[in-house]
Amino acid sequence: MSPRGRRSSPTTQLVEYLNRSDNWCNLKDLPTLAKSRLRRAQNSVKRSKDNNDLLEFIGDRVVNLACSLIVDKVKESSDHHMFVGRVLSNNDTLGRIAYQLDLHKSAHLDQRDDFEVTEWNPRHAISPPKALADLFESYAGAVYEEHGWERVMDWLKQIFTPLLKPATEDFNRRSDAGCNFSDSWQSVDQELQDYQERILDYLDFKSKFLTEAARSALDALPASSLQLIFRW
């Protein structure tokens, strides 16, 4: 089994483009951030002080919206828009982008994440660790927080616009082969896993609030009511 259940890396035009380091030479000049915000964007140690959980949460929404708007300008059909928008913003793509932009080199990671990121490279037959995708989303969230929508959108356009052609080639290949959109290389099970990971990350981020809210609700119940147990 691949590390932590990660799937085999897909063989697509998009992945081949992402893995060529010469495609990224002119994109490594990242938007500048204040030192304090940069440190927060780079801190992926769970439950540590000033980690990047919130920036990642914001960046996830920013990246998904940006990709949808970028694809909308060139969409050939609703299926094309949905397919390309999804593959541009999934964890595999974002992880490869983060790796090419060297975001991992200055990151602070959990021991397990640090090992997986250090051991991975684009030549591997498995997808990149989710920690890499999280670093990209965190940086996008930090750019949005510091510079606003127009600046982060300009930056994301530079990154994602060159990916439209290979992603469209992958879509057209599937169409020529008579495949349904629902059969895209990212399986339904993997998509479900990605959503579950996002939900769990959010619940982890809100754990203190949820615990306190549940305790207040239990305290308000009459003693004769059914006992509920809330654990985190």
Automatic annotation (TrEMBL):
For this protein, the record's PROSITE patterns field holds:
RNASE_3_2 (PS50142)
Ranges of residues in domain RNase III = 11-148
Which Pfam families does the record associate with it?
Answer: Ribonuclease_3
One GO MF term: ribonuclease III activity
GO terms for biological process? RNA processing
Can you say what this protein is called?
Answer: Predicted protein
Classification lineage:
Eukaryota, Fungi, Dikarya, Basidiomycota, Agaricomycotina
